[in-house]
C-alpha cells in the first residue's frame, strides 16, 4: 500500500491588525525567502509590506500572510487576506495626494496581482513576483 502524496505546507503568518503587522510580515518573508535560497528579497519585502499595510489600514480582522512558490514556474507568490469586504483599487494619479500610490507602484513591479473573495467572508489579495 502506498502513501498518498503529501502537499507541501504553505508558510503562513497570522498577524494582529496593527502598525506592527507590516514589519512582522517583512521579517517573515525575508526568513522564508532565505530558506528557499532566494537571496534578493527586496521586491518581496516591498510587496508584502504594501499588501499588509492595506489590510491593516483598510481591512478588518486578523491579517493572514501566506507565501508559496508557483508550482508551474517556481516564482514566489504572496497572499495577504483579511475579513473585510472592501476591494483594493489602484487609485487614479493625483499629484497633490500624500498617499494612495502604493498599490499602483506594486502593480507595476509584479508579474500579476489580483483579489479573490473567500467563501467564509473576506478576501485574499495576491501578487506574483518576477
From TrEMBL:
Gene3D superfamilies documented for this protein: Histidine kinase-like ATPase, C-terminal domain
UniProt xrefs under Pfam families: HATPase_c_2
UniProt keyword Nucleotide-binding present: yes
InterPro entries registered for this protein in UniProt: Anti-sigma-factor_SerPK, HATPase_C_sf, HATPase_dom
Highest taxon in the source lineage: Bacteria
Keyword terms, alphabetized: ATP-binding, Kinase, Nucleotide-binding, Serine/threonine-protein kinase, Transferase
Gene Ontology MF terms: ATP binding
All copies of domain Histidine kinase/HSP90-like ATPase, residue ranges: 23-127
Identification of the protein by name: ATP-binding protein
